[in-house]
């Protein structure tokens, strides 16, 4: 009788383990879109970690706006296809071969000087990673007719592996 209870307990435990492990594996599967989005986020986080001044983008007290190329295309469409110089000056940066999708962030960091040339304290950061793992940051300020490039930096970045299958 004790052996039967022991064997039944082992079999029952085995069945429970199979049920829970299969449901756990199913819960961890991501759709292709979710996986690609996660990959893009990892690439951008890698770029952010390459440049200490980009910590301003993660400050919860500062409002930061994030734009993708699709967001800028929507803005161009909303203006009847004739976007202003501000959208055009940023959209050009999205041309080229990148690993993941580049992003454009607009922030208002402390200590930014407002002057005749730059009448606002807004700063734009175009972040990207090239296909050969170079992390790039283009720092911009809104000028009279569009975003002006005020600094550009590139450093060797980490390889972000593609974990979404083949």
Structure summarized in a few sentences:
With 166 residues, the chain is α+β, with helices and mostly antiparallel strands.
Description:
This protein has 166 residues and is of the alpha+beta class. It folds into two domains: 1-30; 31-156, no CATH class. Helix content is 38%, strand content 20%. The chain is built from four helices and five strands, in the order ααβααββββ. Strand 4 and strand 5 form a beta hairpin. The protein is globular. The model is unreliable at 5-16 and 18-27 (pLDDT under 50).
Protein topology:
Elements: H1 2-28, H2 32-50, E1 65-67, H3 69-78, H4 85-91, E2 103-107, E3 123-129, E4 134-142, E5 147-156
Antiparallel strand pairs: 1-2, 2-3, 3-4, 4-5
Helix residue percentage: 25-40%
Number of helix segments?
A: 4
Strand segment tally = 5
What is the subunit arrangement here?
A: single chain
Question: What is the arithmetic mean of pLDDT?
Answer: 82
- In spatial order, strands of the major sheet run 1-2-3-4-5
Radius of gyration: 24 Å
- Biggest sheet statistics: 5 strands, antiparallel
Low-confidence stretches: 5-16, 18-27
Briefly note the structural class of the backbone: alpha+beta
Q: Which series of helices and strands comes N to C?
A: HHEHHEEEE
Distance between termini? Answer: 52 Å
Number of domains: 2
Shape: globular
Strand content of the residues, in percent? 15-25%
Q: Which key features would you list for this structure?
A:
166 residues; alpha+beta; five-stranded antiparallel sheet; 4 helices
């Amino acid at each position: 009788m004790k052996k039967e209870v022991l064997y039944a307990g082992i079999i029952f435990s085995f069945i429970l383990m199979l049920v829970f492990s299969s449901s756990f594996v199913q819960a961890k599967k991501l759709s292709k879109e979710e996986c690609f989005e996660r990959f893009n986020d990892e690439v951008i986080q890698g770029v952010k970690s390459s440049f200490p001044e980009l910590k301003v983008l993660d400050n919860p007290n500062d409002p930061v706006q994030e734009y993708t190329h699709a967001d800028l295309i929507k803005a161009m469409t909303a203006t009847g296809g004739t976007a202003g110089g501000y959208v055009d000056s940023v959209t050009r940066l999205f041309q080229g071969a990148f690993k993941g999708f580049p992003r454009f962030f607009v922030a208002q960091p402390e200590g930014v000087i407002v002057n005749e040339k730059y009448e606002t304290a807004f700063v734009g950061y175009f972040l990207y990673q090239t296909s050969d793992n170079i992390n790039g940051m283009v720092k911009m300020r809104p000028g009279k007719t569009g975003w002006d490039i005020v600094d550009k930096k590139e450093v060797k970045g980490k390889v972000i592996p593609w974990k979404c299958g083949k």
